[in-house]
Amino acid sequence: MSAVVGSLLAGSGSGSGVDLGAPIARRNPVAKLGASTVLALGLLLSVDVVTAGTALALEALALPWCGLSPRALLRRSAILLVGAVPAGVAAA
Description:
By secondary structure, the protein is mostly helical. It has 4 helices and no strands. It has helices spanning about 1-10, 30-45, 50-65, 70-90. α1 (about 1-10) runs antiparallel to α4 (about 70-90).
């Protein structure tokens, strides 16, 4: 598993999968974190699978607008995926 994570995390620079010409890519990082916190709090309060799934689908559709490619998102969130699977199995 660590070889997969290492290969996903390898590589940076101009081929990082980020389009700096996208509308939201160059905005203030604190504002982007604030907006994601508001969305996350709303999802936590709803505790509804359909609402969370809908939000996840809409966020996936917004990736090109934010300047992040699906490969770059996977590479950046690989460590979260590796940790979430055992946590989900342990909680079940």
